[in-house]
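Q: How would the structure tokens look for this protein?
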Amino acid sequence: MTVKTADVIVVGGGVHGASTAYELAKAGVNVVLFEKEYLGSGGSGRSAAGLRQHFGTEVNLHMAKYNLQVFPTLEEELDTGMPLEFTQWGYMWVAYADSVLAQLQKNVDLQRSLDIPSVMMKPDEVKARWPYLGMDGIIGVAFCGDDGHINPQTLTLSYGHAARRLGATVKTYCPVVKLLAENGKIKGVVTEDGEEWHAPRVLLSAGPWSTPLAATVGVELPVYAERHNLLITEPVEVFDCPMVLCLDDGAYFKQCPNGTFMFGRDDQDEPHTTECSNSAKFLEGVTKSVLKRIPALSGVRVVRQWSGPYDNTPDHNAIIDWTPVEGLLVDCGWSGHGLQFGPSGGRVCKELLMGEKPFVDLHRFRLSRFAENDLFFEPAFI
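A: Here is the predicted structure in token form.
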């Protein structure tokens, strides 16, 4: 068997793997990306794809701010001919309890100290600007007009296609079945068809599938899958509609540029599985919840439903760190907010893989925090 070689191997063709491959190829690195299906077939392409700077910790805010600096010109930079559908219609976090409102205010104060233009708004201000929103129970919101959303599938595909144009090898429908290590150092990967690739550095960025792959070289990752569903309506008149997250039951919605609405909800009862099956219970529950928030959608047909996996950690924050196996870097566990971190995730992984200093301090994302019981909870997630 002929063994093939590269400078860096990337396992996982979601937005983080694809953006890292792009950044490495742009720097002239011989990089190979492996994806078990098509680019974006896992959590990335099935995301609601909100882009926000509403976080309550500095490291997440620095990375989120960088993302929103990149997205406005990214379609032109990647130059693939695919529309990214980037919008800056804003992102709103809605409070229904005094304790939640107080935390939102703290988050906004921190954001503004970092020159992020978030504001607090009172219910009458919200009603005046967005009269179609249902206001029952709302006591205030946090809003950032620079935020918005994007098309997750074309974003991931564009990163991958741009990486290939710059010289990266992108192998789709080519599952990696195990990692290879020798004398405590990463050696490479083996694919489902028996092909063996060697590289001194490997990035494991395969979402919830990272856990079983890491185990093949004795690395334990506290990352587990959790299924989440989304609904799409038929197109309606395009409103001036921000993306909205309701902090009473976790419902969220956005309007896409083609006029369709997307609904979702953070349901803690969802199964821990990578299986992309749909839930009738979710369909009924989220529809009732969203119609309370935007009554104008009453009578609008739901035309599609799909699901995708989150890659969760115990503290719902990512792991970006070298593992005990020398040369093996992991970037996973984003717990439902990873799509928007595609630009910054790709940048820091490229910096680590090339021996450069990351542009942000990644200490809070270290793998060892779980064994040390030093969990990194994000006060933006209430």
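The CA atoms of residues 125 and 313 lie 37 Å apart.

The chain has eight helices and 20 strands.

Upvote if useful.
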